[in-house]
Amino acid sequence: MTTPDSYMDGLKHPEKPLIEALCGVVRALDPQVVEIVKWNAPSFVYDGKDFATLHLRAKRGIGLILHTGVKAKDHSGFAPIDDPQGLLKWLAADRAMISFDSLETLKAGEAVLTAILRQWLTRL
Length: 124
Known about the structure:
Blueprint: H1 4-10, H2 16-27, E1 33-38, E2 41-46, E3 49-55, E4 62-66, E5 89-92, E6 95-100, H3 103-121
Antiparallel strand pairs: 1-2, 2-3, 3-4, 4-6, 5-6
């Protein structure tokens, strides 16, 4: 099994500083957030449940896919996620993506991203 550190050590990607910074933001959410390598990308688990995976194959920037694991779940009873800057691109009722095209855009949106991720964790 590949560890996150060995994965990052071997990663050859033009956006590696952005990837490392984004992983740091997600890890800082809560002490229970654990970084793993799944689906050949940095992924994150909270309280034993998968909730986020980096999308590294975009032509520009990096995406963070928010999900509730492999199987779809009914989210009809959940309140909408407050997204004042419109960062979320909804891919399905239980799946969304946030994209950052540079380290600067990540830093500018870090507080909003953190708030969105905290809301997402309540859906797991």
